[in-house]
Design goal:
mainly alpha, 191 residues, 2 strands, disordered N terminus, 4% strand, 73% helix
Length: 191
Amino acid sequence: AMTALEKITEDNKIEGKEIQQFDLLGMKKATELNPYQSEYKINLSRVYLTRAFYFASLKPENDETKRQLIQGVVNEINLALIYASDGYIGKRYVKGGTKLSPNMVYAWNNLGTICQQVILSGWGDQNIINLGINAYKKAIELEPVNPVFPGELAKIYLVIDDFEKAEENLKKSLELKPDYGNSIVQLSQLY
C-alpha cells in the first residue's frame, strides 16, 4: 500500500516531474558504484533539492498528508545537504561533495547554492544559514577573483538582515567585475 506522501506524489505528477524519480535512481546507483566521485554526490544533492521543492509545491488534501509532505520536504533537504557536504543517513556516514573534493570550488558553490535556495524558500534555520555562509566563504577563498561568490554570499546576508556584510560583499563583487549585473541590482536595492 502507498503512503499518503507516495499517493499525493503519484496524483500530482506533471510533465517532466516523472524524470525526478529516474534521476534519483540513476544518481543513487552511480554513487553506489563509485562513492568517491564527488560530481555524482553533487548531482545527487541537486536531485534531492529539486524533489524537496517539488514536495513543497504540492497541495495536501488533509492534515495527515500535510504532515507527511512537510516531513518529506525536510528529509529531502537533509539528504541534499548530506550529499553536498557530509553526514549520516541512519547509521551510515556519507562523504559528500565538499568532503570528497575540499579544493573543488564547484562543490563549495553547490553547497552554498543549496543552502541559499533553502533559506530563500523559508525552510532554512540558523545551521543552514551558517553552512551557506561558510560554503561561499570557502568558494571565495578557492577562487578569489570570481565576482559571483561574493554576490551570492550577499544574498544570504540580505535575508538575515545583515546589510553591512551584504553591502561589503556586493562591493567586493563589483570591484572584481564592475559591470556584474546581479550585484549592481542588489546593491541598488540596498540604497
